[in-house]
Specification:
single chain, mainly alpha
């Protein structure tokens, strides 16, 4: 079970790390933008759309942003740009990406903490089970020793009983012989 949890953690951690890295690169690219650029320069921003952890709402905002940036002025549309128009648009996207970055960093940190707790719990379980096995082995050995001592004591007691019975029979025979001899001398 621990191997499965570790594999899931590794995959999720890798996904979060890749997403965080992509977000940081995209934010850096957007912050460097001081004027309109063709959509090709937003490759890092476009790459965010393929990440599995990026929410659909964030992908939709990115699509809108990239569509606005890629529109080139035509005909009479060419005029002096409005002040801070582009910065305002990218500021909102940068802010959204930074919030997303913070969210992913927090989630990755929580994932790492959860993994550490899970690993610790697993290690504690292994340690506890090892201690139980050691204790059971010690108990079994103590019981085996105790049984062996009891069996030896029983064997000794049975041997002593046999010796005592033999001695008693010999004493009873001697007593009977002595009594017979005394009666014979008395008569």
């Amino acid at each position: 079970i621990r191997a499965i949890d570790k594999a899931n953690y590794d995959a999720t951690h890798k996904d979060y790390s890749e997403s965080i890295d992509a977000l940081m690169r995209a934010i850096a690219v957007l912050k460097k933008q001081a004027h309109d650029r063709p959509q090709a320069s937003f490759a890092q921003v476009s790459a965010l759309k393929s990440m599995s952890l990026i929410p659909q709402e964030a992908k939709r905002v990115l699509d809108t942003f990239l569509a606005q940036v890629s529109q080139e002025p035509t005909g009479l549309d060419i005029s002096a740009p409005e002040a801070y128009g582009y910065e305002f648009q990218s500021h909102g996207v940068i802010e959204m990406l930074e919030k997303l970055l913070d969210k992913f960093v927090d989630e990755r940190t929580a994932l790492e903490k959860e993994e550490m707790n899970s690993k610790h719990a697993h290690e504690m379980l292994v340690q506890d089970l090892s201690a139980q096995v050691d204790q059971a082995t010690q108990d079994r050995e103590e019981k085996s020793e105790s049984k062996a001592k009891h069996l030896q004591a029983k064997a000794d007691a049975e041997g002593d009983l046999q010796d005592t019975m033999t001695t008693k029979e010999a004493d009873e025979k001697y007593l009977a012989d002595l009594t017979a001899t005394c009666e014979q001398k008395a008569t």
